[in-house]
Automatic annotation (TrEMBL):
Protein name, as recorded: UPF0225 protein H4F99_02030
Top-level taxon of origin: Bacteria
Organism expressing this protein natively: Marilutibacter penaei
Domain YchJ-like middle NTF2-like residues, every copy: 29-121
Similarity section: Belongs to the UPF0225 family.
Length: 126
């Protein structure tokens, strides 16, 4: 498993997001954010649900077919307290043969019992 990690750190998947996908605790909200992006790339809908805060977790995550993820850029990572953080990012993707789309979002994360969870996000459509 020497594949480069989809999240774009330049590290191998085996030592980057894979341990989190197996259940390891993320060091911070940015690491959790990256592992969730990788989960979208790899189609790990179970992981997306597991890393979603119970208060806002949907019943299912529908992974769209035909989406090709092109890359992730984490723009900002701010701790707002020991168990609260904000991560702003841009994820690029393409659907079928369409144009590349830039999804800009500022996400909120919460830590519960030592584990980070995605709470919600505001999509920036500017
Ligand atoms: Zn990674």
């Amino acid at each position: 498993m020497d594949l480069p990690c989809p999240c774009g750190t330049g590290r191998a998947y085996a030592t980057c997001c894979h341990p989190l996908h197996r259940g390891d605790v993320a060091d911070d909200a940015a690491a959790l954010m990256r592992s969730r992006y990788s989960a979208y790339v790899l189609g790990l809908d179970g992981y997306l649900l597991d890393s979603w805060h119970p208060d806002t977790r949907p019943a299912v995550v529908a992974l769209e077919a035909g989406v090709r993820w092109l890359g992730l850029e984490v723009k900002r990572h701010e701790a707002e307290g020991p168990d609260r953080a904000v991560v702003a990012f841009v994820a690029r993707y393409r659907v079928g043969g369409g144009r590349a789309v830039r999804h800009r979002e500022t996400s909120r994360f919460r830590r519960v019992d030592g584990r980070w969870f995605y709470l919600d996000g505001e999509v920036d459509i500017g």
